[in-house]
């Protein structure tokens, strides 16, 4: 059975997603403790997870604030519907969820969004979530491709640091150093980081 990571806030949408997902996947849940999160939300999240018997990963993100909590609410303006607005909320939450999903071997990230949310918040729309899915599926450029692009852009490669050790020079032994040396070797150019 595929694994899925459900983003669980304790609200109606995410609770429904949790119960939908548990019928289809081996489920874990993730929740985000942002600035000023209501204790009732946290409690609801814990109760829902316990009812289904899933583990919840709690992520503290105190820098994430709703518009009402920024500059005394000036950012939200007089329209109360914007009080809960958080710029790039779903981009942040899905990115963090993707990080944890990979470690758990979860193939799916399940988030609860409805048409009402999408009418207010662009990052809750079907189109936005679709683009995030495309981004997560997109193949990355390999190291040789990155190196070729860096040369085209005249990136000062001698300034770059890839080594997992913190010495005066690249160690040449760790995975990143070996991958770097192989990429430079593949294009027939000496690595300036090893010429210092």
Which helices and strands, and how do they pair?
Elements: E1 3-7, H1 12-22, E2 26-34, H2 39-52, E3 56-61, H3 89-104, E4 108-110, H4 115-120, H5 126-137, H6 143-152, H7 175-186
Parallel strand pairs: 1-2, 1-4, 2-3
Your description of this structure?
- With 196 residues, the protein is of the alpha/beta class.
- It has 2 domains: 3-137, Rossmann fold; 143-194, no CATH class.
- It contains 7 helices and 4 strands, in the order E-H-E-H-E-H-E-H-H-H-H.
- Helix 2 links the parallel strand 2 (26-34) and strand 3.
- Helix 1 (12-22) runs parallel beside helix 2 (39-52).
- The longest helix has 16 residues, at 89-104.
- The protein is elongated and about 60 Å long.
Features:
196 residues, alpha/beta, Rossmann fold, four-stranded parallel β-sheet, 12% strand, elongated
Please outline the major beta sheet. Answer: 4 strands, parallel
Order of helices and strands: EHEHEHEHHHH
Helix count from the secondary structure assignment: 7
Note poorly predicted spans.
Answer: none
Give the CA-based shape. Answer: elongated
Query: How confident overall, as mean pLDDT?
Result: 86
| Total of domains | 2
Cross-sheet strand order for the largest sheet: 3-2-1-4
β-strand percent reads: 5-15%
CATH superfamily of the largest domain: HUPs
Brief sketch in words of this structure:
The chain has 196 residues and is an alpha/beta fold. It contains seven helices and four strands; from the N terminus they run βαβαβαβαααα.
């Amino acid at each position: 059975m595929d694994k899925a990571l459900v983003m669980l806030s304790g609200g109606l949408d995410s609770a429904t997603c949790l119960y939908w997902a548990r019928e289809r996947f081996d489920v874990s849940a993730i929740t985000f403790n942002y600035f000023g999160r209501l204790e009732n939300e946290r409690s609801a999240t814990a109760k829902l997870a316990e009812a289904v018997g899933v583990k919840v990963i709690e992520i503290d993100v105190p820098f994430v604030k709703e518009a009402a909590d920024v500059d005394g609410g000036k950012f939200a303006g007089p329209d109360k519907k914007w009080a809960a607005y958080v710029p790039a909320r779903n981009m942040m939450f899905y990115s963090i969820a993707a990080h944890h999903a990979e470690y758990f071997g979860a193939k799916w990230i399940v988030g609860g969004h409805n048409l009402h949310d999408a009418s207010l918040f662009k990052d809750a729309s079907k189109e936005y979530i679709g683009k995030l899915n495309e981004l997560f599926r997109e193949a990355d450029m390999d190291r040789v491709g990155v190196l070729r692009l860096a040369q085209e852009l005249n990136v000062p490669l001698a300034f770059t640091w890839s080594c997992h050790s913190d010495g005066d020079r690249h160690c040449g032994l760790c995975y990143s150093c070996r991958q770097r040396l192989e990429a430079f070797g593949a294009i027939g150019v000496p690595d300036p980081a090893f010429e210092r």
